[in-house]
Amino acid sequence: MKRGAIFLKCVVAVLVATFFFAWITYLLWNWLVPVLFNGPIISYWQAFGLLVLTKILFFGVGGRHHSYGGPGVHQRFWKQRFYEKMSSLSPEEREAFKKKMREKWCSPSDKD
């Protein structure tokens, strides 16, 4: 199958899913919010706008900028920074840091 046809099918599927979720939001809102919270009844397009607003507020606009370059990159960055800081400490400072962390985070049975 050609790439163009696959792309078109994906675009249509995303549009159908978006309109379906807007319809579900519309039904659930008008069923629950007026009764439970004495809120307004909304139109289908207002429900669609709510979906767009939640996407913007919770996931941002654009691509996957929040991933920091892929899975695990953010974790590796902090791990590397921690090791750099620990390596710059003297042996006495490192032991004091470890003791402080053991006292704060380990249970009494773990403090050997």
What amount of the residues lies in strands? Answer: under 5%
Instruction: Estimate the helix proportion, in percent.
Output: over 70%
- Helix tally equals 4
Q: Work out the radius of gyration.
A: 26 Å
Main sheet specs: none
Pattern of helices and strands: HHHH
Distance between the termini: 64 Å
Write the layout of secondary structure elements.
Blueprint: H1 3-37, H2 44-59, H3 73-87, H4 91-105
Helix pairs in contact: 1-2
3D structure, described in words:
The structure is a single chain. It is built from four helices and no strands. With 112 residues, the protein is mainly alpha-helical. The longest helix has 35 residues, at 3-37. The mean pLDDT is 85.
Q: What is this entry, summarized?
A:
It contains four helices and no strands.
Main attributes of the structure:
single chain, 112 residues, mainly alpha, 2 domains, 0% strand, elongated
